[in-house]
Automatic annotation (TrEMBL):
Name of the molecule in the record: ABC transporter permease subunit
Transmembrane annotation, as ranges: 9-30, 119-140, 152-184, 204-227, 262-289, 309-335
Main localization (coarse): membrane
Organism domain of life: Bacteria
Bilayer topology annotation: Multi-pass membrane protein
GO biological process: microcin transport; transmembrane transport
Alphabetical UniProt keywords: Cell membrane, Membrane, Transmembrane, Transmembrane helix, Transport
ABC transmembrane type-1 domain span: 113-328
Localization (cell): Cell membrane
Organism for this UniProt entry: Paraburkholderia franconis
Family indicated by similarity: Belongs to the binding-protein-dependent transport system permease family.
GO cellular component term of the entry, any: plasma membrane
Length: 346
Protein backbone atom coordinates (compact mmCIF):
# COMPACT_ATOMS: atom_id res chain seq x y z
CA UNK A 1 0.00 0.00 0.00
CA UNK A 2 2.64 2.54 1.00
CA UNK A 3 4.78 1.75 -2.03
CA UNK A 4 1.75 2.40 -4.26
CA UNK A 5 1.02 5.73 -2.52
CA UNK A 6 4.67 6.78 -2.78
CA UNK A 7 4.75 5.89 -6.46
CA UNK A 8 1.62 7.93 -7.14
CA UNK A 9 2.97 10.90 -5.20
CA UNK A 10 6.21 10.81 -7.18
CA UNK A 11 4.25 10.65 -10.45
CA UNK A 12 2.48 13.88 -9.48
CA UNK A 13 5.73 15.82 -9.88
CA UNK A 14 6.28 15.23 -13.63
CA UNK A 15 2.55 15.66 -14.24
CA UNK A 16 2.53 19.06 -12.55
CA UNK A 17 5.69 20.12 -14.36
CA UNK A 18 4.23 18.98 -17.67
CA UNK A 19 1.00 20.94 -17.19
CA UNK A 20 2.86 24.08 -16.13
CA UNK A 21 5.43 23.76 -18.93
CA UNK A 22 2.76 23.39 -21.60
CA UNK A 23 0.77 26.34 -20.26
CA UNK A 24 3.87 28.52 -19.87
CA UNK A 25 4.90 27.68 -23.44
CA UNK A 26 1.48 28.61 -24.84
CA UNK A 27 1.53 31.89 -22.92
CA UNK A 28 4.70 32.97 -24.75
CA UNK A 29 2.85 33.01 -28.08
CA UNK A 30 -0.46 34.55 -26.95
CA UNK A 31 -0.87 38.09 -28.31
CA UNK A 32 -1.94 40.97 -26.12
CA UNK A 33 0.15 40.19 -23.05
CA UNK A 34 0.18 42.20 -19.82
CA UNK A 35 2.78 44.67 -21.14
CA UNK A 36 0.70 45.40 -24.24
CA UNK A 37 -2.44 45.81 -22.12
CA UNK A 38 -0.63 48.13 -19.71
CA UNK A 39 0.68 50.21 -22.61
CA UNK A 40 -2.85 50.50 -23.99
CA UNK A 41 -4.15 51.57 -20.57
CA UNK A 42 -1.28 54.04 -20.19
CA UNK A 43 -2.10 55.63 -23.52
CA UNK A 44 -5.77 55.85 -22.63
CA UNK A 45 -5.07 57.39 -19.23
CA UNK A 46 -2.54 59.77 -20.76
CA UNK A 47 -5.23 61.00 -23.15
CA UNK A 48 -7.55 61.48 -20.16
CA UNK A 49 -4.92 63.36 -18.15
CA UNK A 50 -3.63 60.61 -15.82
CA UNK A 51 -1.01 57.88 -15.81
CA UNK A 52 -1.28 54.48 -14.12
CA UNK A 53 1.41 52.37 -12.46
CA UNK A 54 3.20 55.46 -11.15
CA UNK A 55 4.62 56.23 -14.62
CA UNK A 56 5.18 59.69 -15.98
CA UNK A 57 2.57 60.71 -18.57
CA UNK A 58 3.70 61.90 -22.01
CA UNK A 59 1.88 62.49 -25.24
CA UNK A 60 2.85 58.95 -26.17
CA UNK A 61 4.46 55.88 -24.62
CA UNK A 62 8.20 55.90 -25.17
CA UNK A 63 10.68 53.04 -25.03
CA UNK A 64 11.72 53.86 -21.45
CA UNK A 65 8.17 53.45 -20.21
CA UNK A 66 7.82 50.15 -22.04
CA UNK A 67 11.06 48.99 -20.44
CA UNK A 68 9.70 50.01 -17.04
CA UNK A 69 6.58 47.96 -17.66
CA UNK A 70 8.60 44.92 -18.73
CA UNK A 71 10.69 45.18 -15.57
CA UNK A 72 7.53 45.62 -13.47
CA UNK A 73 6.03 42.38 -14.80
CA UNK A 74 9.32 40.47 -15.00
CA UNK A 75 9.39 40.35 -18.81
CA UNK A 76 12.85 41.92 -18.89
CA UNK A 77 14.21 38.40 -18.21
CA UNK A 78 14.45 35.68 -20.87
CA UNK A 79 11.63 33.09 -20.95
CA UNK A 80 13.79 30.24 -19.65
CA UNK A 81 14.83 32.24 -16.59
CA UNK A 82 11.20 33.22 -15.88
CA UNK A 83 10.22 29.57 -16.24
CA UNK A 84 12.76 28.40 -13.65
CA UNK A 85 11.81 31.22 -11.28
CA UNK A 86 8.17 30.14 -11.57
CA UNK A 87 9.01 26.50 -10.76
CA UNK A 88 11.15 27.62 -7.83
CA UNK A 89 8.30 29.69 -6.37
CA UNK A 90 5.74 26.97 -6.89
CA UNK A 91 7.98 24.39 -5.22
CA UNK A 92 7.36 26.15 -1.89
CA UNK A 93 3.76 27.18 -2.78
CA UNK A 94 4.48 30.82 -3.53
CA UNK A 95 1.91 31.58 -6.24
CA UNK A 96 3.14 35.12 -6.86
CA UNK A 97 1.38 38.47 -7.17
CA UNK A 98 -1.43 39.44 -9.52
CA UNK A 99 -0.36 41.91 -12.23
CA UNK A 100 -3.52 44.01 -12.18
CA UNK A 101 -5.23 43.35 -8.83
CA UNK A 102 -2.10 44.12 -6.78
CA UNK A 103 -2.76 41.20 -4.42
CA UNK A 104 -1.12 37.86 -3.85
CA UNK A 105 -2.69 35.00 -5.79
CA UNK A 106 -3.29 33.17 -2.50
CA UNK A 107 -5.29 36.08 -1.07
CA UNK A 108 -7.35 36.30 -4.27
CA UNK A 109 -8.18 32.60 -4.15
CA UNK A 110 -9.10 32.79 -0.47
CA UNK A 111 -11.34 35.82 -1.09
CA UNK A 112 -13.27 33.93 -3.80
CA UNK A 113 -13.62 30.69 -1.84
CA UNK A 114 -16.86 31.59 0.05
CA UNK A 115 -18.79 31.74 -3.23
CA UNK A 116 -17.25 28.55 -4.60
CA UNK A 117 -17.72 26.70 -1.31
CA UNK A 118 -21.36 27.77 -1.10
CA UNK A 119 -22.17 26.66 -4.64
CA UNK A 120 -20.04 23.52 -4.33
CA UNK A 121 -21.47 22.25 -1.05
CA UNK A 122 -25.08 22.81 -2.02
CA UNK A 123 -24.55 21.30 -5.48
CA UNK A 124 -22.84 18.21 -4.07
CA UNK A 125 -25.24 17.48 -1.23
CA UNK A 126 -28.46 18.24 -3.12
CA UNK A 127 -27.34 16.16 -6.09
CA UNK A 128 -26.61 13.08 -3.98
CA UNK A 129 -29.47 13.52 -1.50
CA UNK A 130 -32.00 13.61 -4.35
CA UNK A 131 -30.38 11.46 -7.02
CA UNK A 132 -29.38 8.42 -4.92
CA UNK A 133 -32.86 7.76 -3.43
CA UNK A 134 -34.41 8.51 -6.82
CA UNK A 135 -32.06 6.07 -8.54
CA UNK A 136 -32.89 3.34 -6.00
CA UNK A 137 -36.62 3.92 -6.47
CA UNK A 138 -36.20 3.73 -10.24
CA UNK A 139 -34.26 0.45 -9.98
CA UNK A 140 -36.91 -1.11 -7.74
CA UNK A 141 -39.67 0.06 -10.13
CA UNK A 142 -37.72 -0.58 -13.32
CA UNK A 143 -39.93 -0.35 -16.39
CA UNK A 144 -42.86 1.20 -14.55
CA UNK A 145 -44.56 4.49 -15.36
CA UNK A 146 -42.72 6.10 -12.46
CA UNK A 147 -39.40 4.96 -13.94
CA UNK A 148 -40.19 6.30 -17.41
CA UNK A 149 -41.63 9.59 -16.14
CA UNK A 150 -38.67 10.35 -13.85
CA UNK A 151 -36.21 9.36 -16.59
CA UNK A 152 -37.89 11.85 -18.92
CA UNK A 153 -37.72 14.61 -16.30
CA UNK A 154 -34.06 14.12 -15.36
CA UNK A 155 -32.98 13.78 -18.99
CA UNK A 156 -34.78 17.01 -19.89
CA UNK A 157 -32.96 18.70 -17.00
CA UNK A 158 -29.68 17.24 -18.25
CA UNK A 159 -30.35 18.51 -21.79
CA UNK A 160 -30.97 22.09 -20.66
CA UNK A 161 -27.69 23.98 -20.14
CA UNK A 162 -27.35 25.51 -16.69
CA UNK A 163 -27.00 29.07 -17.96
CA UNK A 164 -30.15 28.72 -20.11
CA UNK A 165 -32.07 27.53 -17.06
CA UNK A 166 -30.53 30.41 -15.11
CA UNK A 167 -31.77 32.94 -17.65
CA UNK A 168 -35.24 31.36 -17.51
CA UNK A 169 -35.26 31.54 -13.70
CA UNK A 170 -34.21 35.19 -13.78
CA UNK A 171 -36.92 36.02 -16.29
CA UNK A 172 -39.58 34.24 -14.25
CA UNK A 173 -38.53 34.99 -10.67
CA UNK A 174 -35.68 37.52 -10.73
CA UNK A 175 -37.48 40.65 -11.81
CA UNK A 176 -37.31 39.95 -15.53
CA UNK A 177 -40.67 39.80 -17.28
CA UNK A 178 -42.78 38.26 -14.52
CA UNK A 179 -42.05 38.13 -10.77
CA UNK A 180 -39.31 39.63 -8.63
CA UNK A 181 -39.06 37.08 -5.84
CA UNK A 182 -35.29 36.58 -5.64
CA UNK A 183 -32.28 38.95 -5.67
CA UNK A 184 -29.99 39.17 -8.69
CA UNK A 185 -26.50 39.33 -7.22
CA UNK A 186 -24.20 38.43 -4.30
CA UNK A 187 -24.69 35.82 -1.59
CA UNK A 188 -26.09 38.19 1.02
CA UNK A 189 -27.88 41.52 1.28
CA UNK A 190 -26.12 44.80 2.06
CA UNK A 191 -27.65 44.86 5.58
CA UNK A 192 -26.66 41.28 6.36
CA UNK A 193 -24.64 42.29 9.45
CA UNK A 194 -27.71 43.90 11.01
CA UNK A 195 -29.93 40.83 10.57
CA UNK A 196 -30.75 38.32 13.30
CA UNK A 197 -29.31 34.79 13.24
CA UNK A 198 -32.34 33.29 11.53
CA UNK A 199 -32.64 36.37 9.36
CA UNK A 200 -29.10 35.79 8.09
CA UNK A 201 -29.91 32.15 7.29
CA UNK A 202 -33.06 33.13 5.39
CA UNK A 203 -31.24 35.93 3.55
CA UNK A 204 -28.43 33.57 2.50
CA UNK A 205 -30.86 30.88 1.27
CA UNK A 206 -32.89 33.55 -0.50
CA UNK A 207 -29.82 34.68 -2.47
CA UNK A 208 -28.45 31.22 -3.23
CA UNK A 209 -31.74 29.61 -4.35
CA UNK A 210 -31.73 30.46 -8.07
CA UNK A 211 -28.00 29.82 -8.72
CA UNK A 212 -28.18 26.44 -6.97
CA UNK A 213 -31.28 25.35 -8.89
CA UNK A 214 -29.58 26.31 -12.16
CA UNK A 215 -26.43 24.39 -11.14
CA UNK A 216 -27.85 21.14 -9.77
CA UNK A 217 -30.66 20.31 -12.19
CA UNK A 218 -28.24 19.20 -14.88
CA UNK A 219 -26.34 17.00 -12.40
CA UNK A 220 -29.30 14.84 -11.41
CA UNK A 221 -29.33 12.67 -14.53
CA UNK A 222 -25.78 11.30 -14.24
CA UNK A 223 -25.95 10.31 -10.56
CA UNK A 224 -29.53 9.07 -10.82
CA UNK A 225 -28.88 6.78 -13.80
CA UNK A 226 -25.57 5.58 -12.33
CA UNK A 227 -27.34 4.63 -9.10
CA UNK A 228 -30.17 2.91 -10.97
CA UNK A 229 -27.86 0.88 -13.21
CA UNK A 230 -25.64 -0.10 -10.28
CA UNK A 231 -28.65 -1.39 -8.34
CA UNK A 232 -30.03 -3.23 -11.36
CA UNK A 233 -26.70 -4.98 -11.89
CA UNK A 234 -26.62 -6.13 -8.27
CA UNK A 235 -30.29 -7.17 -8.17
CA UNK A 236 -29.70 -9.59 -11.06
CA UNK A 237 -26.77 -11.36 -9.40
CA UNK A 238 -26.89 -14.86 -7.96
CA UNK A 239 -26.51 -13.89 -4.31
CA UNK A 240 -29.73 -11.85 -4.50
CA UNK A 241 -31.63 -14.80 -5.91
CA UNK A 242 -30.19 -16.98 -3.13
CA UNK A 243 -31.24 -14.49 -0.46
CA UNK A 244 -34.76 -14.37 -1.85
CA UNK A 245 -34.89 -18.18 -2.01
CA UNK A 246 -34.05 -18.30 1.70
CA UNK A 247 -37.22 -16.35 2.41
CA UNK A 248 -35.72 -12.93 3.20
CA UNK A 249 -38.06 -10.02 2.67
CA UNK A 250 -37.52 -7.81 -0.37
CA UNK A 251 -36.75 -4.86 1.90
CA UNK A 252 -34.06 -6.82 3.78
CA UNK A 253 -32.52 -8.08 0.55
CA UNK A 254 -32.42 -4.57 -0.88
CA UNK A 255 -30.98 -2.69 2.10
CA UNK A 256 -28.77 -5.35 3.69
CA UNK A 257 -27.28 -7.05 0.63
CA UNK A 258 -27.78 -4.96 -2.50
CA UNK A 259 -27.36 -1.47 -1.05
CA UNK A 260 -23.76 -1.88 0.16
CA UNK A 261 -22.46 -3.38 -3.08
CA UNK A 262 -24.41 -1.13 -5.42
CA UNK A 263 -23.14 2.06 -3.79
CA UNK A 264 -19.49 1.13 -4.38
CA UNK A 265 -19.16 3.18 -7.62
CA UNK A 266 -20.77 6.18 -5.90
CA UNK A 267 -18.73 5.98 -2.71
CA UNK A 268 -15.38 5.83 -4.48
CA UNK A 269 -16.46 8.80 -6.57
CA UNK A 270 -17.29 10.93 -3.53
CA UNK A 271 -13.82 12.56 -3.17
CA UNK A 272 -13.66 13.65 -6.80
CA UNK A 273 -17.28 14.84 -6.81
CA UNK A 274 -16.86 16.67 -3.51
CA UNK A 275 -13.68 18.51 -4.51
CA UNK A 276 -14.85 19.03 -8.07
CA UNK A 277 -17.99 20.76 -6.83
CA UNK A 278 -15.82 23.56 -5.40
CA UNK A 279 -13.53 24.15 -8.36
CA UNK A 280 -15.66 23.35 -11.40
CA UNK A 281 -18.52 25.74 -10.74
CA UNK A 282 -20.12 27.10 -13.86
CA UNK A 283 -18.49 30.31 -15.03
CA UNK A 284 -21.69 31.30 -16.79
CA UNK A 285 -23.75 30.73 -13.64
CA UNK A 286 -21.39 32.92 -11.62
CA UNK A 287 -21.48 35.63 -14.28
CA UNK A 288 -25.24 35.41 -14.75
CA UNK A 289 -25.99 35.80 -11.05
CA UNK A 290 -23.07 38.20 -10.34
CA UNK A 291 -21.31 35.75 -8.01
CA UNK A 292 -17.62 36.56 -7.72
CA UNK A 293 -16.16 33.06 -7.40
CA UNK A 294 -13.13 31.13 -8.61
CA UNK A 295 -14.62 30.50 -12.05
CA UNK A 296 -15.09 34.21 -12.71
CA UNK A 297 -11.60 34.93 -11.34
CA UNK A 298 -10.02 32.42 -13.73
CA UNK A 299 -11.92 33.79 -16.72
CA UNK A 300 -11.05 37.42 -16.00
CA UNK A 301 -7.41 36.47 -15.44
CA UNK A 302 -7.23 34.81 -18.85
CA UNK A 303 -8.89 37.79 -20.55
CA UNK A 304 -6.59 40.31 -18.86
CA UNK A 305 -3.51 38.08 -19.32
CA UNK A 306 -2.92 38.06 -15.57
CA UNK A 307 -0.45 35.20 -15.86
CA UNK A 308 0.44 34.76 -12.15
CA UNK A 309 -3.26 34.15 -11.39
CA UNK A 310 -3.67 31.86 -14.41
CA UNK A 311 -0.61 29.75 -13.60
CA UNK A 312 -1.15 29.85 -9.83
CA UNK A 313 -4.75 28.67 -9.97
CA UNK A 314 -3.85 26.06 -12.59
CA UNK A 315 -1.06 24.74 -10.39
CA UNK A 316 -3.31 24.59 -7.33
CA UNK A 317 -6.26 22.99 -9.13
CA UNK A 318 -4.03 20.42 -10.85
CA UNK A 319 -2.44 19.47 -7.55
CA UNK A 320 -5.84 19.10 -5.89
CA UNK A 321 -7.11 17.06 -8.84
CA UNK A 322 -4.16 14.65 -8.68
CA UNK A 323 -4.52 14.24 -4.91
CA UNK A 324 -8.26 13.63 -5.30
CA UNK A 325 -7.64 10.97 -7.93
CA UNK A 326 -5.27 9.20 -5.54
CA UNK A 327 -7.85 9.32 -2.73
CA UNK A 328 -10.49 7.92 -5.09
CA UNK A 329 -8.24 4.99 -5.98
CA UNK A 330 -7.56 4.32 -2.30
CA UNK A 331 -11.30 4.32 -1.62
CA UNK A 332 -11.69 1.32 -3.93
CA UNK A 333 -9.50 -0.74 -1.62
CA UNK A 334 -10.92 0.65 1.61
CA UNK A 335 -14.51 0.00 0.51
CA UNK A 336 -13.90 -3.35 -1.22
CA UNK A 337 -10.95 -5.34 0.26
CA UNK A 338 -11.12 -7.74 -2.69
CA UNK A 339 -9.45 -5.08 -4.85
CA UNK A 340 -5.66 -5.05 -4.60
CA UNK A 341 -3.30 -2.21 -5.32
CA UNK A 342 -1.66 -4.25 -8.06
CA UNK A 343 -4.98 -4.15 -9.93
CA UNK A 344 -5.11 -0.35 -9.71
CA UNK A 345 -1.69 -0.05 -11.32
CA UNK A 346 -2.77 -1.93 -14.45
Amino acid sequence: MWSYILKRLLLMIPTLIGVLTLTFGVIQFVPGGPVEQAVHELRRNTAEGGAPFGLRAHSGVDAQQVAQLKALYGFDKPPLERYWLMLKRFSHFDLGQSYFRHQSVWSLIVSKLPVSISIGLWTFFLTYLISVPLGIAKAVRNGSRFDMATSLVVLIGYAIPGFVLGVLLLVLFGGGTFLQLFPLRNLTSDNWDQLSFFGKIFDYLWHIALPIVASVVGSFAVVTMLTKNAFLDEIRKQYVLTARAKGLSERRVLWKHVFRNALLPLIVGFPAAFIGAFFTGSLLIETLFSLDGLGLLSYESVVRRDYPVVLGTLYLFTLIGLATKLISDLCYVWVDPRIQFEQLER
